Amino acid sequence: MEYAISTQNLTKRFGNFTAVRNINIQVKPGEIYGFLGPNGAGKTTLIKMLCGLLEPTSGNAQVLGMDLSQETEAIKNRIGYMSQKYSLYEDLTVMENLEFYSGVYGIPLKTKKEKLRQMVKMADLCGRENDLTYGLSSGFRQRLALGCAIISNPSIIFLDEPTSGVSPTSRRMFFEIIHSLAEEGITVIVTTHFMDEAERCNKIMFISGGNLIAADTPANLKNNVLEGTLVQLSLDHAMEQISRIEQLPYIKECNIHGAFLHVILKNESYIDKLEKITRGHAKIITPSLEDVFLALSKQKKAGDSFEQN
Ligand SMILES: Nc1ncnc2c1ncn2[C@@H]1O[C@H](COP(=O)(O)OP(=O)(O)O)[C@@H](O)[C@H]1O
Ligand SMILES: [Mg+2]
Fold it and tell me: Is pLDDT at 307 greater than 70 in this prediction?
């Protein structure tokens, strides 16, 4: 099997509103593939279609070599899904939640005990098996929800904003688990708003307004998306100068970035001019993923060439 997931013009309309439009992506087995994009971009809708929970309006996909429109039930048996509002029972204990999901997935008794033990360990919940889920902090709950989603040994897991609302330490821990799952050959689809997490994906797709804007490795996106020279500009009254800087003919873009401005010049020969006119200090920098996504979001707005429908 060349691809764990392959889509052809996958589209979802709600009434006459198009939430996901003509998406074509290929995900390799064992890859960690990030879906990035603003709220309402269509990430959850796309995931729900790939999980067989929402029927596409048009287009199709193959998941684990199976046809999404024909073999929906077989696909469901081979995947795990952790939804944005993940489905733990708060009035059950840690172990009872895992027991419940192992029942849902029909985990054979022989292997169940060992499987439950593994999941408790992965979630770092050893010794807390009998605690009520209600009292767990969000990091533990997320790892427990992940445990419930992978208890059936899925070949693909879909994680919809798994780390929103948890501490940086828990986020890091969660991504370490994701990486070890991928090393075992599990394909991971994950949505995130965090650039450090995007950076740790093998490939990322940027989606906005239902359209695929870019899909590539983090390194390729950083090297290829920005056309021109990115400089970090330090100057006084940065905010007040933005609109004036944006108007300069040799400027492609200007964004506030903490205490600095990140400015994309048509090429590096304009650095002196920029420093003179702003009385600032400019330094060439390597773009971060955040620079890339700001640029992509703006390209989309400026162009807005995507047809509605
Ligand atoms: N069941 C639905 N009926 C109508 N519109 C929907 C439905 N589900 C999602 N949408 C709309 O589709 C768009 C994409 O939503 P969603 O996939 O949840 O985006 P994301 O997960 O990227 O935030 C949004 O504008 C949302 O309001
Ligand atoms: Mg969503």
Answer: no
Does the pLDDT at position 238 exceed 80? yes
pLDDT(100) > 70: yes
**87 C-alpha vs ligand 1 centroid, how far in Å?**
19
Residue nearest atom 12 of ligand 1, based on CA coordinates: 19
Counting from 1 in the atom list of ligand 1, the atom nearest the Cα of 160 is 21
Looking at the structure, do residues 65 and 114 belong to the same domain, yes or no?
yes
200 alpha carbon – ligand 2 mean position (Å): 20
In the structure encoding, which two tokens stand for residue 283, read together?
């330094």
Q: Are residues 103 and 32 in the same domain?
A: yes
Question: Which positions ≥6 away from 254 have C-beta within 8 Å?
Answer: 242, 245, 246, 261, 262, 263, 264
Q: Which atom of ligand 1 is nearest to the CA of 35?
A: 22
Which residue ranges have their beta carbon within 6 Å of ligand 1? 14, 19, 37, 39-45
- Looking at the structure, do residues 114 and 258 belong to the same domain, yes or no? no
112: domain CATH number? 3.40.50.300
Integer Cα distance of 136 and 151 in angstroms? 20
pLDDT digits (tens, 9 = 90+) for 191-236: 998 999 999 999 999 999 999 999 999 999 998 888 889 999 999 8
pLDDT at residue 153 greater than cutoff 70: yes
Q: Is residue 142 part of a domain?
A: yes
Per-residue pLDDT, 300: 66
Angle at 145 between CA 152 and CA 166, to 5 degrees: 150
